[in-house]
Amino acid sequence: MHVLKTMLRQPSALFGLIIVTVVVLMALGAPWIAPYSPDNQMFDGLSIEGAPLPPSTRFLLGTDTLGRDLFSRLLFGARTSLVIGLVANGIAVAIGLLVGVLSGYLRGAVGGLLMRFTDLMMAFPALLLAIVLAALLHPSLWIVAMVIALVNWVQVARIVYTETRGLVERDFILAERSLGAGHLRILFVHILPHLMPTAIVWGTLGIATTVLLEATLSFLGIGVQPPQPSWGNIIFESQSYFQAAPWLVFFPGAIILLTALSFNLVGDALRDILDPTQRGRG
Amino acid sequence: MTMSAPTPILTVRNLCVDARTPEGRQRVLHDVSFDLISGETLCIAGESGSGKSVTSLSIMGLLPKASLQVASGTIRLGEKDLVALSNRAMRSVRGGDIAMVFQEPMTSLNPVMSIGAQLTEAIREHQGPEGGAAETIARQMLDAVHITEPVRRLTQYPHELSGGMRQRVMIAMALSCRPKVLIADEPTTALDVTVQAQILKLMRELKQEFGASIILITHDMGVVAQMADRVAVMQNGRIIEQGDALSIFENPKQPYTQELLAAVPRLGAHAGNDAPPRVSAITAPSVSVSPAPILQVRNLDVTYGSPVRRLFRGMLPAAAVSEVSFELRPGETLGLVGESGSGKSTTGKAVLGLIPFTGHVVIDGQNIAGLSARQMRPVRRSAQMIFQDPYASLDPRMAVGAAIAEPLVIHGLGDRSERDDRVAELLRHVGLQPDAATRYPHEFSGGQRQRICIARALALQPKLIVADESVAALDVSVRARVLDLMLELQETMGLAYLFISHDMAVVERMSHNVAVMRGGRIVEMGTRRAVFENPQDDYTKALMAAVPIPDPRARHIA
Amino acid sequence: MLLLVLRRLLQTALILLGVAAITFLLLYALPADPARMIAGRSATAQTVANIRRELGLDQPFPVQFWTYLHGILQGNLGRSYAQKTDVGALIMARLPATLILMAAGIFVEVVLGLILGIIAALRRGGPVDRVVMMASFVGVSAPQFVVALLLLYVFAVTLGWFPMSGFGSAAHVVLPAATLGILGAGWYARMVRSAMIDVLNQDYVRTARAKGLSSARIVLRHALPNALLPIIAMIGIDIGQFMGGVVVVEAVYGWPGIGQLAWQAIQQVDIPIIMGVTLVSALAIVLGNLLADIIAPLIDPRIRAR
Amino acid sequence: QETPKQGGDVLITYKDDIATLDPAVGYDWVNWSMIKSLYSRLMDYTPGTPDLIPSLAETFDVSADGLTYTFKLRKGVKFTNGREVIASDVKYSIERAVNPKTQGPGAGFFGSIKGYEDVSGGRSTTLEGIETPDDATVIFHLSRPDATFLHVLAINFASVVPHEAVEAAGGDFGKKPVGSGTFILKEWTIGQRLVFERNPDYFVKEMPHIDKFTVEVGQEPLVALLRLQKGEVDIAGDGIPPAKFLEIKNSPDGAKMIVDGEQLHTGYVTLNTRIKPFDNVKVRQAVNMAVNKERITRILNGRATAANQPLPPAMPGYDKSFTGYVYDVAKAKALLAEAGFPDGFQTVLYSTNTDPQPRIAQAIQQDLAAIGVKAEVRALAQSNVIAAGGTEGEAPMIWSGGMAWIADFPDPSNFYGPILGCAGAVSGGWNWSWYCNADLDRRAVAADSMSDPAKTIDRAAAWGKIFTDIMADAPWIPVINERRVVAKAARMGGSDKIYVDPTRVINYDAIFVKQ
Ligand SMILES: Nc1ncnc2c1ncn2[C@@H]1O[C@H](COP(=O)(O)OP(=O)(O)OP(=O)(O)O)[C@@H](O)[C@H]1O
Ligand SMILES: Nc1ncnc2c1ncn2[C@@H]1O[C@H](COP(=O)(O)OP(=O)(O)OP(=O)(O)O)[C@@H](O)[C@H]1O
Ligand SMILES: [Mg+2]
Ligand SMILES: [Mg+2]
Ligand code: NI
């Protein structure tokens, strides 16, 4: 409660919270808000020559290259993209934190082995894995989320590993050991909180990149399949139209940006509130 | 108010500093005013947390912007008002006109820069000598602060130095540019008395040679007596009394000042006793039987650096500790004294299995060599450590209350409310308000942090405590309280202390037995009485002689 | 140190072996059939069978993998199915371009990221910080293709400052590297910013200020090295990303890097090329990480004792 | 029509790298026309037309039973390594194309030559059906009449190569080609560019017209277009991407840039006759009626026309009067109900994943939804779609876009065997409808035996009937005939037909620079 109140006092955090709320409401309320079905390819949604239509009163944000209402697609796309951006990315960051912190903390064979495993995973062509999975499984939103988590955790682990190596050498860790703290306690109570800034950077910037990564996977055939909209595939489908129909890139791009940014504002505020060394700042 | 006529070089007037806390602004300095006359040494004494460090940081313009802010007042250095000075102009003042030695040496040195780089940098910045000259000066400065092997030290990193050595590096750094004003915040707190004497001498020389003025912040009335031309006593963010040294020592007006002077331990005060003074009413159960030792150390050796690295670097650093053997029985205190870098902290860490060692260490009947963290767990319950550098040994992201409760949580003692009660009790024991529990380490003064560490170590009611300079940063009144607390615990619970300190008077007061270390070895060990009243080793004798006497008339450092 | 490097090189070999095995297995599991991709629409079933046999695709997995490994041990990456030529030569022909782009791209993003991150950290909470943060998000959420084309449109087509496409001169590198830099700098800026904020609150920075050092020196010499650890790790990661992941930028600027080769090979199920590129980029990633692990203790001496 | 001028350098761009220039191996639409120009073959086509002409052969003669072909070689034709082309080179080249060791995709085209089975089965390396009595004569003995044989001798796989150069290249012939065509490969910087220079000794005077053409690879089509508009590039080989088409078309000099040519292409949806409910002909007919092809051509900005039969309009045998299944939702629904699916059914529609294919698949998906058929679109990489199509019982519907490329040669038979005949309805085949009609197969063989040139018209008619009859069973939904759009600089001359040549893509031999 205290956290929330402190947050509401900061204008940027408030802004972030509002946008996050709006986006979530958009996703939940899509069927009621959307003026059209997101899949409806309207014959008059294209010009006579077959070009998508710019924003107008009829199509608020214009139409796409199949004559579908962009606004409606963005609303429904929020559902997919939030799952990808929050769940998939969240899992990736969580796994990355865990593996990174363990391999940076544990000395000797186990830590080394863990890190080499991460190195192996990192060296491994993730896209190939995605392609094979696409060919072997029936792509669904959750499989996509899983693949993304599988692909992304490695990088987080790498960074966290390096940071942990630095942290472990700090004196207060020695002090904790002298108190008899077990490895788990040192890891979770004393090291993890120091990794919060990194986690927040990845957790929030990662939203944007995973949403786009989902589109790449769509392209490889493992993403959500057409006509189900996602912010990423809306951009990808029409990115070459950025001159002919800029709205097709601009609006989804802006909403991805805004969402990631808002989560970041909230995350930053949260970090500052939780980080005592930053206390007292405005 | 002083009535001295000579021109002051630094004038502080009505300085008020506010702290921003979640509960709103709180004033930590109230109308502090004083002058520093050119060529004099002003000692600021006062209880821990009274605002000494904040005052000095304000002068340097180095208050942490996030939490502390000058609310009003002026600080004049010659023509310049430092409070209003631009950042740029302030830069040339810092380091050049005014230099400062900070209280916590570990965190005040950059961990990723070599000692040499940190030293020469300051020299180059303000004196701009060419190439190698700065290095020469740096080496000379290390020599001046009596660091052994100065050439090698220049290439070392802060974590490779002992606490005292770091402090000396800090001093060398501050002195290297021959500042007009030197602010030294507890500069000798972590130093053994011989080095302390040398440093103090150095500061005097500097003062004489360059007409520099010194603000010396210290809790050690012995040092005050040896150094001060004038003294300011602080309490609760105010200067409650200031005047020239003689009048303060001989004619203290404020009750606090009187109390402060009364509490000063004097070397030899306990001569003739075998054991520390009794502080509790309990009648002695201790001497009756001589129980098995709680700590047995035989042939302890510690060498830093990984074997692989040593192999490839080709140079084997000398062992930090070698062939150390001693025993410690319940209810006993072994005082460990010795020069800085002699391996005291290393010994302390090794006997608790915190760094790799070879040899034999038995705690409470359990040989700890090669035990896993899990196997060590029960041992840790009975053996605790208070680290030399309190700031570095506290998790900066953990509230102080949680930090103190940490050992209770780790060992699964008590429920939440019980723990809270215990934390409050411990805080009170070490002279802090229970409401400190919700604050974070960086919001405390150096002495306050040290008390927090003590509270943490006491939380488990261990049988053995390794106390590494654990009262060094405390002002005498608080120190006396804490020492009494430690003695009381010893008496009631049969606690054993491995008491590492440079302060001979404190060691004398606390110990049953004393060991003197030098160069990683124990050069002399015996009962307190034997060592203090009849020292054999030359080094021990030198130590005794160097202890500052808290009487300005009896200055022996010159 | 030497021993450590040797040990890590051995581990590298093992990692590469692991990567090779997994990749090979995955490709084997892939239902797509390279022989049919080569044969095309009009080939008879017998032609397809012949091609399969000639490529050894009719062999069981262990035999195929062993044959492949055997080749690798002799320094032979095999022959491309579709291009009927030595894979090693194909990769070598494109490796310089990839390395140049990688180096230039990392240089731009690191420099940009450091500058922005430091400025943001110093101006924390102020308008400059907000703008930098916003910009870093724009960089991160912008689709590569669009950014690449926009830059190309503005600086090559409209202003004519740089060539539109190709490889060879320094001018050619500018736009692709700038694109990668813009896209990646956001990450660095954010990492640097949060690490710097942490470091700038440390006591030793206060000491440095007490010495009267210039802000530039304080930031660059005292704060930055302490904040650099995660950045080094990021660079290690980026080496991996760039080896395989800059297909789009390479395509837009006609840059003859390995990404394009890999992309086409994937489309054609040209297994020897996929394997070759995978191994080369795996090697780059492992070496990048190794480098990061070696540099980390150089920056932070506390880690060295380990 | 202006007369071609000699000389000039031309710059052409492609997105994909050139895989190989080995004529026995190369089989994609980009290297197809380059190989055509690097080598010569016994037969060739008049540029811009599907009309066969002798090329390396000076004259030829077909026996009455259609089983023996005798060619007289042109005198004095030289490989670019300086050696004269002789009859044994022709024999060697075709044997090489058939030999399994070459791993060539085109072996099957030579299936009618006597002894083919022995060579392709690895039992022999020489084709007994090719005889070279002297250096200037090549005689082919066929095991069955083959009306397409002259076309076969005109496809790339029949290109004549010098054996010594092949051997010298040691397996890398595809990168070091030597032929006797209009151009010589001068430089190949992998991943960047190929430089072709005219062959000064080419045996046809004033052929080719340009001195040199450079192919830059790895060029994104959108960027290639920008470069073309700036005058850096002469031909954007990949054509105009959909995103740019309207802009260019409506621009002032759009008309000069766009080459819009008819190609031998049909885009279709296969209906897998072995998967329920498409095993029911009524269902197949119903979905045929459900697809609104006009809307799809609009999505493609009018760059295609609606199709109603497998053959494209430019192919001999195309039946202009055939109307196929007209778009009629009501009728489709009725038929579906009749087939026992009044509420429709669920199915899967595969498609490749490059624009505009997924869009077309989605358009079809929406049309099917209108009659209650819920198709899940799976947009996958081409190789995965091909794999799914060739696996029995896997893919109910596949949109062919992006894969059904142009014909190998302009003959209707090329549209039947692999993609609609029984031979293709095998595991790994390209008959993704898994449609096998023995009767039609018989008629196809019969039509292909009509090798007498006099019967060309009849043969075409026979083939035409086969394709319209197939539509009664409706194994496909023929959707569109896509036109090929190439962008070229204004200075490039030559009719549109040589930029969208029915037998090549760009006819490098015939293009020229105007000034
Ligand atoms: N982490 C380390 N790596 C290398 N050498 C070290 C390390 N820590 C301490 N040393 C060295 O070991 C020796 C003993 O150090 P130690 O900290 O035990 O001294 P000390 O007696 O506690 O001194 P002080 O009173 O100044 O704290 C010193 O020479 C020091 O330089
Ligand atoms: N960053 C901060 N935020 C809030 N309060 C602070 C901060 N730093 C110091 N204080 C408070 O200001 C008061 C004065 O602290 P200061 O550090 O000046 O004490 P000191 O006299 O130097 O004590 P010591 O001898 O223990 O070092 C203390 O009560 C301390 O808790
Ligand atoms: Mg202090
Ligand atoms: Mg010590
Ligand atoms: Ni002291």
TrEMBL record, chain A:
Record CDD domains: TM_PBP2
UniProt keyword Phosphoprotein present: no
Primary site of residence: membrane
Bilayer topology annotation: Multi-pass membrane protein
GO cellular component terms, semicolon-separated: plasma membrane
InterPro entries, alphabetized: BP-dependent_transpt_permease (IPR050366), MetI-like (IPR000515), MetI-like_sf (IPR035906), OppC_N (IPR025966)
Keyword annotations of the record: Cell membrane, Membrane, Peptide transport, Protein transport, Transmembrane, Transmembrane helix, Transport
Span of domain ABC transmembrane type-1: 78-267
Cellular localization per UniProt: Cell membrane
Pfam family, one: OppC_N
Entry's transmembrane regions: 12-34, 82-105, 117-136, 142-161, 200-224, 244-266
Gene3D superfamilies for the chain: MetI-like (1.10.3720.10)
UniProt record, GO biological process: peptide transport; protein transport; transmembrane transport
Family, similarity comment: Belongs to the binding-protein-dependent transport system permease family.
Protein name: Peptide/nickel transport system permease protein
Species this chain originates from: Phyllobacterium myrsinacearum
TrEMBL record, chain B:
Main subcellular location of this protein, as a coarse class: membrane
GO molecular function, one term: ATP hydrolysis activity
Keywords, alphabetical: ATP-binding, Cell inner membrane, Cell membrane, Hydrolase, Membrane, Nucleotide-binding, Repeat, Translocase, Transport
Catalytic reaction equation(s): glutathione(out) + ATP + H2O = glutathione(in) + ADP + phosphate + H(+)
UniProt membrane topology term: Peripheral membrane protein
Annotated Gene Ontology cellular component terms: plasma membrane
EC number(s) from the headed UniProt entry: 7.4.2.10
Signal peptide range: none
Pfam families reported for this sequence: ABC_tran, oligo_HPY
Keyword rRNA processing tagged: no
Subcellular localization: Cell inner membrane
One of the GO BP terms on file: peptide transport
Record carries keyword Cell membrane: yes
Highest taxon of the lineage: Bacteria
Domain ABC transporter, chain residue ranges per copy: 12-261, 297-544
CDD domains: ABC_NikE_OppD_transporters
InterPro entries reported in the protein's UniProt record: AAA+_ATPase, ABC_transp_ATP-bind, ABC_transporter-like_ATP-bd, ABC_transporter-like_CS, Oligopep_ABC_C, P-loop_NTPase
Assembly description: The complex is composed of two ATP-binding proteins (GsiA), two transmembrane proteins (GsiC and GsiD) and a solute-binding protein (GsiB).
Summary of the function given for this chain in its UniProt record: Part of the ABC transporter complex GsiABCD involved in glutathione import. Responsible for energy coupling to the transport system.
Family: Belongs to the ABC transporter superfamily. Glutathione importer (TC 3.A.1.5.11) family.
Protein name: Glutathione import ATP-binding protein GsiA
From TrEMBL, chain C:
UniProtKB keywords: Cell membrane, Membrane, Transmembrane, Transmembrane helix, Transport
The keyword Isomerase is assigned to this record: no
Subcellular compartments: Cell membrane
SUPFAM superfamilies according to UniProt: MetI-like
UniProt-listed InterPro entries: BPD_transp_1_N (IPR045621), MetI-like (IPR000515), MetI-like_sf (IPR035906)
GO terms classed as biological process: transmembrane transport
Occurrences of domain ABC transmembrane type-1 (ranges): 95-296
Pfam family, one: BPD_transp_1_N
Membrane topology summary: Multi-pass membrane protein
GO CC annotations, alphabetized: plasma membrane
Transmembrane annotation, as ranges: 12-30, 99-122, 134-161, 167-189, 227-253, 273-299
Domain of life: Bacteria
Family of this protein: Belongs to the binding-protein-dependent transport system permease family.
The protein's name: Peptide/nickel transport system permease protein
